[in-house]
Design brief:
By secondary structure, the chain is mainly alpha-helical. The protein is built from ten helices and no strands. It has a single domain, classed as AhpD-like. The two termini are about 15 Å apart. The relative contact order is 0.19.
């Protein structure tokens, strides 16, 4: 299934999402991101939602844009952030400061060596962190992105993609 085919099953009450999905995945809708970044964020976001139809459609269309290393990195970002977002959100929300002084003892080597440009992996990670609602991770990834000269508008583009992908996933899941 392609994104165009997927848009045909999005109900009319979510017409704005249908339109936004096309927009954010285009150069005009996310001008601060290159194709690898835009499609990588979309793939990572779709993986983070767990919505199979959406993931299949995004991966099908991204296949024309992303090479194997970028597809793998997008999946890795969703996987590692799925773990980190829970752990670090717990640290942030817990009133017991002892936890933040303890070592995480969680393997996270893919963050240091993602197999693609570090900045691109950070964009994937901030998008997934936004979907998963981890403020501590959002702050950490935003800081790294800004240190690498990524503009706030490019970061916003990544999060806009994540927001639309997440909303479409929610609608499709409810309609299933």
């Amino acid at each position: 299934m392609s994104i165009q085919e997927l848009k045909n099953i999005i109900p009319d009450y979510a017409k704005d999402l249908r339109l936004n999905l096309s927009s954010v995945l285009s150069n005009a809708g996310a001008p601060g991101l290159n194709d690898n970044q835009r499609w990588g964020v979309a793939v990572a976001s779709a993986y983070a939602t767990g919505q199979r139809e959406l993931l299949a459609a995004i991966e099908a269309d991204a296949g024309e844009q992303l090479d194997a290393a970028y597809r793998q990195a997008a999946r890795s970002a969703a996987a590692i952030m799925g773990m980190n977002n829970i752990y670090y959100r717990f640290l942030h929300l817990s009133s017991n400061e002892d936890y933040s002084q303890m070592p995480a003892r969680l393997r996270m080597t893919v963050i240091g060596n993602p197999g693609i440009e570090k900045v691109d992996f950070e964009l994937f990670s901030i998008a997934v962190s936004a979907i998963n609602g981890c403020g501590m991770c959002i702050d950490a990834h935003e800081k790294v992105l800004r240190q690498h000269g990524v503009s706030t508008s490019a970061i916003q583009d990544a999060v806009r993609i994540a927001a639309v992908v997440n909303a479409v996933a929610s609608v499709l899941s409810q309609e299933a």
